[in-house]
Each structure stands twice: as C-alpha cells, then as structure tokens.
Amino acid sequence: MRRRDFLKTAGTVAGIGLVPRRGMAVESLAGAQIRIIVPFPAGGPTDILARPLAQALGDALKATLIIDNRGGAGGSIGANAVAKSAPDGRTLLMATVGTQAINPALYQSLPYDPVRDFTPISMVAMAPVAIVVNPALAASNLTELVALAKRMPGKLDYGSAGPGTPGHLTGEMFKSAAGIDLQHVPYKGSAPALIDLLAGQIKIMFDPLQSVLSQIQAGKIRALAVSSKIRAPILPDVPTIAESGYPGFETAAWWGIFAPAKLSPDLAATLANAIDRIVRGDGFRSKIEPLGAFPTVLSGSALAEFQLAELAKWGKAVQDSGVKVDQ
Questions:
Q1: Residues 34, 105 share a domain
Q2: Measured distance between the N- and C-terminal CA atoms of the chain, rounded to whole angstroms
Q3: Which of 36, 188, 224, 318 has the fewest CB atoms within 10 Å distance of its CB?
Q4: What angle (nearest 5°) sits at the alpha carbon of residue 283, between those of residues 281 and 289?
Q5: Which of 133, 93, 91 is nearest to 223 (CA)?
Q6: pLDDT tens track for 189-224
C-alpha cells in the first residue's frame, strides 16, 4: 500500500475542533520551554519515537523541547504528572495505548482519568502486534498455528512482555477469535521473552513489532501475522491477522501527544497543526518506519473518539483475561 493510501486508511483527519476560526489569532509557543513527559525509561520504544518528534516540534514552534523520562506503573506515573500540570502548553505527554486505554481497566487504582484529565492533541504513530514463532515450530502461517494448537489444546505456550501489555491482550483476543487454548507466560519486558523464544523455551510470542523486528529480519524467528488493519510497510510480505481468516481483527500499540485538560483551543490548534505536519513529513517517517512503527495522523475530536473506542476494546480484553495489577 502506498504511503498516501495508508495515511488515508489510518485516519487522516484535520481535527475540526482544533482549527481556529478565520481571523482568530493563534497563541504562539515561540521561545517557550516545553517538556514532553515520556512515561517510560530512556531507550524504550516510546522514548525512541518521542525524540525525533521533539526535535522537529522544537524547530516548528521555535521553542526548546525537553524529553523528561518518568517511568513506572505501566506509564501511570508520567501520565499523572501531566494530568496534574498547568494547561499552558508547556507540559505534554507522549501517551501510549497503555496510559490512555489499557491502564484504566488494568490497575486497581489509577491516579488520573484518561479522558477527563487530558486534552487530546495528535496521534503520532502506530505499531502492530506481531505473532512470531521459533523456527522449529511446525507452523509457517497462522492457519497452521491454529491447527497445531487445536491438536494440542493447552500444550503450547506463548510469551509476552507482561500481564496487561498489548502483546498479552492481543494474544488473549486471538485465542478467543480462533477458538484455541494457549498458555500465557508473562515476562518482565520484551527482552527476556525474546531470549526464551530464541532459545526455544517458548515457541510463540505476541509483542509489538518494533521489539521483535530485528530478529525477524535476521531470520532467527518467523513472523506469521501482524495485528494491524493493513500490512506493516517494513514487512510487506507478512499478512495481517484479519486477512489470515479473522476478518475485523485489529489491535495496535499507538502513541500520541496529550496535554492537560482545559488547554486553550488556540494552543491545542498550534500544537496539533505543527505535529500533523511533522507526522506527514518524510523526515519523521524515515526515522520510525525502520523501527516497525508507522506515522498516523489523527487529531482533536477524531483522536478523542478513537480513544473512547480503544478504552472499550482494551477494557473488554482486560476483563476477559482476568488480569489485575496493583499500583
């Protein structure tokens, strides 16, 4: 799929609620110092995506952009810091599907409300969850994996980066869709799960594509499918779950910029317009597509509607899985 077709499919929306009326002066952030709080440690997928965005956004706004890593509690500590900040455009959240859609159902007590406490600005990127297997497993596609699982109910393990992560919940949703019984093996992060997959300790893994991409490209593990609506541009020969016999199946890890609630429409428009131009640009795409993510344009009210749908989807997945995490 050509890039312009992908952007259309992914939801290229101008964000009507953020566009100022003609003749209305737009408040400037020129000269400001702006913090983007990344709610995970430096070097992780969220941090890696945030840094090229911050650099380009600083140039676009003629402002100083600072990355502030505040990890912990599945992103909730960083998200809460933004929720409690002044709505002046100087503090932003590099939000994730976890902070804005999964955590409300996953955590027993969350210090922020993912809708009420934020102003949605712009989506930045998405990445599918990949279903990958050890090459020794007798399954070269999803049909063969499901057939194998049905012959061995409850005997096949799948790993994920931990309880309630996009990989785990996508695995649970796929089990339900396919009518199979796989045993979940939670790890403390993607890296240890991938080590055991390579060693054959587990045979299957569900994880966002960027975490396993290099091993797929090196031929050390086999990708059977991705969970996004369309194929990942970096792996055009790997089919989606939907086209592999499960129409309508779609999940994705995603990232976007959110500000504290009650941000002025002028500031929201200033940020959204600048971010959307960056995300549409070749420079940003060239930095994130090799990582397994793809640019996604969605702003304002359209992003708010998308978030509500994601809260319902992932909330049901958490409920069905029965997993709960204490703060």
A1: yes
A2: 42
A3: 188
A4: 95
A5: 133
A6: 899 999 999 999 999 999 999 999 999 999 999 999
